[in-house]
Automatic annotation (TrEMBL):
Entry keywords, A to Z: Signal
Record-linked CDD domains: PBP2_TmCBP_oligosaccharides_like (cd08509)
UniProt-recorded name of the protein: ABC transporter substrate-binding protein
PROSITE patterns the UniProt entry points to: PROKAR_LIPOPROTEIN
Length: 568
């Protein structure tokens, strides 16, 4: 099958294109041009292409920003076509968001009404102006079609008042306040012709956005975007972006080292010797941690994890330092606080009553907890009070090598208590189905981050997510329920009083520590690799202004901050 290409068009124009063949990308070379001389301004036409690589499989052309499975989202270029109202820094949840398509916004005291002032002077890539009607239309789409509202925000009324858009919600949105303003905006004059229920299935072959780049070509060997010359944010250093899907982490790593790819994310075991050492001056990995974590989710509705004694004991025998170093090469940092929050992002949220409680290995204490609960060792195997051996199965997709390595280490750790744990690799689709329906015993999973620990805890233990076993749950896969914690979740989400919210969070954390609904192991970074051979200005430990991943909504902001580097 031959690739079709597009004729290069003006960077502020739009053109209709035929459907593309399937995108099956391997490694694609990308040569760097010579640097401009001293008399040449460091502007885009004299700078090299920036190749973005991801180890994600994509298929037919699909530029739909609403579809998490589209090529645009999996490779990340959706985030340079479409932009949010505000840029949220997931690396520093306490930082105020950066105004973007919204020049200002405000909430009422109860966080039930959001007023957004739409930035003036912004144009869509087809030359039409961005208007408050576009923003209102986008919020209305999310309200009217649940499939377009993955955060389940309870949108109610949406209205335009001059340059402002006013959105009301059915309940207080304190915990979702950054999600609401991180919403990307689509043009009403393009999307209004599509029925809301069909939007998610539309391949959006002629994308029109406010972002700094426009789609130039979708072909089997790469997706090409070119910089707009009329972008509202000003001139761009990078004239052209090329997005490439690599077959696996190893192929992308090799592309980094050779200079073929300059930005992306791949899990690289022993990354310091395999990746950084290849060019210490120019190759970088930045892996900041916000409030998201990786945890061992436990099915609290079935043995043995229906017994809190077993959950507490297992929590006490896991060496998080070893798991971090051996399974993730130290990229995922070990959690220290008993509250399960990563530091330093979580420091201001830790209850004073738990400030000194840490996650540490204590096999003797774990054994004592089990003995006090009626368990006993028989020929080295732990039995419950009915004489049944304590066993469980640890499951994750077989191809997720870091998680599988972590499960092996969990199995080795619980053997010290006489517990027999079996590690089982599953097909990815099967695993997603089984963990959602509660057909599992223990499995590694992640939580989201955000401006508060709401998502961190809610996804592990909020009873509002509980569904009967056999029915798919969207979070709290272990089906943990506690009336006191559930009431605290409601208070934390809806209260307008800071002290009341702090008390509710302290209650959630106390239940989390005492009842162990899941076992927190590692902070979950938003990691990326990048090269400064051609461009500088990426987020770094010295300047952590955004999540560094090219698939994050901050990609458009990152590209506005890049400057030409010493091309060699």
């Amino acid at each position: 099958m031959t690739a079709r290409t597009r004729t290069r068009r003006p960077r502020h124009a739009s053109a209709r294109r035929a459907a593309a063949p399937a995108l099956v990308l391997l490694t694609v070379g990308c040569g760097l041009v010579a640097p401009a001389d001293e008399t040449t301004p460091p502007v885009a036409p004299h700078s090299p292409v920036l190749t973005v690589g991801m180890p994600n499989t994509v298929g037919e052309e699909d530029n739909n920003p609403f579809d998490s499975g589209s090529a645009a989202q999996k490779l990340g270029y959706a985030n340079v076509l479409y932009e949010p109202l505000a840029q949220v820094n997931l690396v520093d949840p306490a930082q105020d968001p950066t105004p973007w398509l919204a020049s200002a916004w405000s909430w009422d005291a109860g966080y039930t009404e959001l007023r957004v002032t739409v930035r003036e002077g912004v144009t869509w890539s087809d030359g039409e102006p961005l208007t408050p009607d576009d923003v209102a239309f986008t919020f209305g789409l999310r309200r009217d079609e649940p499939a377009l509202n993955p955060d389940l925000l309870p949108y109610e009324d949406v209205r335009v008042e001059g340059q402002d858009v006013v959105v009301t919600f059915g309940s207080g949105q304190y915990v979702n306040r950054t999600k609401a303003i991180n919403t990307f905006v689509v043009p009403e004059h393009v999307w209004a012709t599509r029925a809301a229920e069909t939007v998610l299935d539309d391949p959006n072959l002629d994308p029109v956005g406010t972002g700094p780049y426009v789609l130039e070509e979708f072909a089997p060997d790469g997706v090409t975007l070119v910089a707009r010359d009329d972008y509202w944010g000003g001139p761009l250093a990078v004239p052209e972006l090329r997005y490439v899907a690599y077959p696996d982490n190893g192929a992308l790593t090799a592309a980094y080292v050779s200079g073929e790819a300059q930005w992306g994310w791949a899990y690289i075991p022993s990354y310091e010797s395999v990746y950084l050492a290849a060019d210490p001056e120019h190759l970088h990995q930045f892996a900041p941690t916000g409030l998201a974590v990786d945890a061992l989710f436990l099915n609290t509705q079935v043995p043995p994890f229906d017994d809190v004694a077993v959950r507490r004991a297992v929590n006490l025998v896991l060496d998080r330092d070893d798991i971090s170093n051996l399974a993730t090469s130290g990229v995922w940092p070990p959690l220290r606080s008993a509250t399960g929050l990563p530091m330093p992002a979580g420091e201001s949220f830790v209850s004073p009553d738990l400030a000194d409680r840490t996650l540490a290995v204590d096999v003797e204490h774990a054994a004592a907890i089990l003995e006090d609960a009626g368990y006993e060792l028989v020929d080295g195997v732990l039995h419950d009070d009915e004489g049944v051996p304590v066993t469980f199965t640890l499951t994750n997709p077989a191809g997720w090598t870091d998680y599988m390595a972590e499960l092996e280490m969990v199995g080795e750790a619980v053997a010290r208590l006489g517990i027999v744990a079996t590690v089982e690799g599953q097909d990815e689709a099967e695993w997603f189905d089984r963990i959602g329906t509660g057909d599992f015993q223990a499995s590694m999973h992640w939580t989201d981050g955000g401006a508060t620990p709401w998502d961190t805890y809610s996804s592990q233990m909020n009873g509002a997510h509980v569904r009967p076993i056999g029915t798919t749950a969207d979070a709290n896969f272990g089906r943990f329920q506690d009336a006191e914690a559930d009431a605290a979740f409601l208070t934390y989400a809806s209260s307008t009083d800071d002290a009341e919210r702090a008390e509710a969070l302290a209650t959630i954390q106390r239940v989390y520590v005492e009842q162990v609904p899941a076992i927190p192991l590692l902070g979950r970074p938003t990691a990326a690799q990048y090269s400064t051979r051609a461009y500088t200005g990426f987020p770094s430990a010295e300047d952590p202004y955004a999540s560094p991943q090219p698939t994050s909504p901050a990609a458009s902001m990152i590209l506005t901050r890049l400057a030409p580097g010493p091309v060699e």
